[in-house]
Automatic annotation (TrEMBL):
Keywords: Electron transport, Heme, Iron, Membrane, Metal-binding, Oxidoreductase, Transmembrane, Transmembrane helix, Transport, Tricarboxylic acid cycle
Topology versus the membrane: Multi-pass membrane protein
Role: Membrane-anchoring subunit of succinate dehydrogenase (SDH).
Annotated source species: Acetobacter senegalensis
Transmembrane parts of this sequence: 71-89, 109-131
Name of the protein this chain belongs to: Succinate dehydrogenase hydrophobic membrane anchor subunit
Cofactor dependence: heme
Compartments reported by the entry: Membrane
Subunit record text: Part of an enzyme complex containing four subunits: a flavoprotein, an iron-sulfur protein, plus two membrane-anchoring proteins, SdhC and SdhD.
Gene3D superfamilies the UniProt entry points to: Fumarate reductase/succinate dehydrogenase, transmembrane subunit
Length: 138
């Protein structure tokens, strides 16, 4: 009887793998989302670093003018959204691996809310930068 129980557990594990479901139940889709967001962050982060070197020593008015340009505002927004999405995905893996019991669900919710709020704050800052850049033009 003991051998049949372990056989069933092995079969469930293999079935879970075949369906693409890991221990957290999120599976291959989560893994791909992490990789795609990481790949998107490479050019976005490179662009941002280059822009910060270009703006080194610039005064406030120059930075506001730079941030008011649609391409720069779009790139900044994409960087912020992708960064906090990627962070949320990574933190979710940590929570799934190390937080168990009753604390698991509240911790996952806190991670999602926290990363979403901080990301939203970053997007709001870009909107303010664009508004300030547009008010300088007129």
């Amino acid at each position: 009887m003991n051998a049949s129980v372990s056989h069933i557990e092995v079969m469930r594990s293999q079935l879970g793998r075949a369906r693409g479901l890991g221990a957290g139940g999120s599976g291959v889709g989560h893994w791909w989302a992490e990789r795609v967001s990481a790949a998107a962050l490479l050019p976005l982060s490179t662009w941002f670093v280059v822009q910060m070197f270009r703006l080194g020593g610039a005064d406030h008015a120059e930075v506001v003018k730079w941030g008011g340009k649609p391409v720069n505002a779009t790139m900044l927004t994409a960087l912020i959204i992708t960064t906090f999405y990627h962070a949320q995905m990574g933190l979710q893996v940590i929570v799934d691996d190390y937080v168990h019991g009753k604390a698991h669900l509240p911790t996952r919710i806190l991670v999602k809310i926290g990363t979403s709020l901080i990301g939203l704050l970053g997007v709001f800052a870009v909107i303010k930068l664009v508004a300030a850049g547009n008010s300088q033009k007129s």
